[in-house]
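dude i think i finally got it to work??
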Amino acid sequence: MRLFQPILLSLSLASLTVLAACSNSTPTTTSTPITTVAKSVETPKVSSAPSMAKSETKSDNSKKGGQVIESGIYHLELVPEPEENSIHLDFFLQKSDNHEAIPDAKVTAQVQLPDGTQKTLDLKYDADGKHYAGLLPSKATGEYKVAFLSDIKGEKVNGRFSFNR
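look at this
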């Protein structure tokens, strides 16, 4: 019996150690593979979110000078251009393999202004520029958060961006 007690104690401690090592004390987040966050235009950064199977944020793949999200087979790019009393939003929605423009999607921008108010814009396709465009009436300074909701023949492709004015 004396030999059994130390063995039982050792096995108990080893089991607790294994359980403690297997437990995950850091919180995990989940997100859909078609939504990614890109940071400000002035200092583009790669998202600090965990890598996702089909979606990643890239700031060096831009051909237009904006923020880029590669989402599955799609290339999403935002180029905000501040004007005196508004911000012109250029949104490029393309197939990522050859960057072919997708002219027949329905694109909506949901914008959170620096003061927290929300605005929704329906973007129109500009055939000459091969992109979607909208005008956001605002001259507030601070961080703008934009979620682009795209419907491409029934397929939902979304992207989240932010920029500073």
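The radius of gyration is 23 Å.
im so relieved honestly
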